[in-house]
Amino acid sequence: MGKRRRKLFFIAMSLLAFVWVVSVGLTFVNEGKTPPDSAFPGVPGPAVVKGISMQCGSGGCWREMAIEAGSTMVANELINEMDLSQERCSARNLLTLTRICTGSSYAGGELRVYLRYAY
Asked: Which end of the chain has fewer surrounding CB within 10 Å, N or C?
């Protein structure tokens, strides 16, 4: 019975390793993949979301939320309330080895919050 258990364990571990390798491989092949809109942080009360778009560049693609901010002071308040003073990344997903990173920038009366995958 011991040999049979070892054989089943080996087969199960081999299948698990195969699924993990395929999952990681598909993640790296799909460069245009972006986090879902639901991953954006909540926008505080009076702020107005102008829209969400997908942007792409040489480093991959990301989602961007445009928020009407008006002044630098309002933008700084929003950045502090949304905890976006620095880019922050979530814990690494062990199945795909990805993290979701969130950050912000302000220009021309508009606060832009972005989401991107980090590998």
From this structure: N
Yes or no: say if 88 and 103 are a contact pair by the CB < 8 Å rule: yes
Residue 79 near residue 104 (C-beta atoms within 8 A): yes
Tally of CB atoms within 10 A around 62: 19
**Nearest by Cα to 89 from 45, 68, 119:** 119
Distance between CA atoms of residues 113 and 103, nearest Å: 6
Name the residue ranges covered by the structural domains of the chain.
Answer: 1-30, 32-118
pLDDT single digits (tens) 69-96? 878 888 899 999 999 999 999 887 777 6
